[in-house]
């Protein structure tokens, strides 16, 4: 079982030797990989809909792993019981959806390592995590088919006292000075520049939102201005 770079990045943060759960498993590629490579003795693979679970079951059966990968249908963390797993992967969803899933079962979420890969709204997701008593312990960027994906790893605990913008953009990512991080921050700067232009064009201006986006944009400009110059 070969994984995409994005899924490999998720697998790398799963706690070795302990059961894990993959929420919204689709074809169960990640659970199969985790078991085959002896990262996890057991994986619970869940999905909201029956059809993806049927596809997943076919894949799991083909690899002869029905005893080690358990398929469950349900919304978010609802199929899990407290103490069943040590890592929970939630990937390929919007950041607000991921936040809703975590908030829906805090008794589960607070006792596991959360390995998250939001497709959108990563800024809002980080802020919600920290405000609800989680700390971000690792972050990673993965480039796949010309798109950058963010991986956020969080556990229950107190985050160091950081500025709101630092938390939202990625407190661990901001410590990196590699080319991929520069590319990510440049993309974020362009995104927020466009948002600010649209806000300023609006007939009824949301002044609080304009202030917030301006603050993010100014922070990004300062960070990129101080970026180390690449030597040829």
Describe the structure concisely for a colleague.
44% of the residues lie in helices and 22% in strands. By secondary structure, it is of the alpha/beta class.
CATH homologous superfamily designation of the largest domain: Vaccinia Virus protein VP39
**CATH class annotation of the largest domain:** Alpha Beta
* Overall number of strands: 7
Largest sheet: 7 strands, mixed
N-to-C SSE string, H for helix and E for strand: HEHEHEEHHEHEEHHH
Helix content: 40-55%
CATH arch. level architecture of the largest domain: 3-Layer(aba) Sandwich
CATH topology of the largest domain: Rossmann fold
The helix count comes to 9
Contiguous uncertain segments of 5+ residues:
none
- Rounded to the nearest angstrom, the radius of gyration is 19 Å
Q: Would you tell me the structural class of the helices and strands? A: alpha/beta
Mass-distribution shape: elongated
- Provide the β-strand percentage band: 15-25%
End-to-end C-alpha gap: 39 Å
Estimate nothing, just give the exact number of structural domains. Answer: 2
Mean pLDDT: 94
In spatial order, strands of the major sheet run 3-2-1-4-5-7-6
Helices and strands, with pairings:
Blueprint: H1 5-12, E1 20-23, H2 29-36, E2 43-47, H3 50-62, E3 69-73, E4 87-94, H4 95-104, H5 106-109, E5 113-120, H6 122-131, E6 134-144, E7 147-156, H7 164-169, H8 179-201, H9 207-225
Parallel strand pairs: 1-2, 1-4, 2-3, 4-5
Antiparallel strand pairs: 5-7, 6-7
Helix pairs in contact: 1-2, 4-6, 8-9
């Amino acid at each position: 079982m070969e994984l995409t770079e994005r899924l490999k990045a998720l697998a790398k943060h799963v706690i070795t030797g302990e059961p894990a759960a993959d929420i919204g498993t689709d074809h169960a590629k990640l659970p199969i990989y985790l078991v085959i490579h002896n990262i996890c003795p057991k994986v619970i693979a869940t999905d909201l809909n029956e059809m993806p679970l049927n596809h997943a079951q076919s894949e799991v059966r083909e690899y002869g792993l029905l005893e080690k990968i358990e398929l469950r249908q349900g919304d978010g963390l609802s199929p899990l019981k407290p103490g069943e797993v040590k890592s929970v992967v939630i990937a390929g969803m919007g950041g607000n959806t991921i936040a809703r899933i975590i908030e829906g079962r805090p008794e589960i979420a607070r006792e596991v390592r959360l390995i998250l890969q939001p497709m959108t709204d990563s800024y809002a997701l980080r802020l919600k995590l920290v405000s609800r008593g989680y700390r971000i312990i690792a972050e990673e960027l993965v480039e796949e088919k010309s798109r950058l994906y963010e991986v956020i790893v969080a556990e229950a605990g107190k985050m160091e006292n950081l500025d709101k913008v630092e938390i939202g953009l990625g407190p661990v990512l901001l410590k990196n000075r590699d080319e991929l991080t520069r590319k990510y921050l440049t993309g974020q700067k362009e995104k927020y520049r466009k948002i600010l232009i649209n806000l300023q064009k609006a007939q009824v201006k949301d002044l609080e939102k304009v202030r917030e986006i301006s603050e993010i944009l100014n922070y990004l400009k300062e960070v990129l201005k101080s970026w180390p110059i690449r030597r040829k």
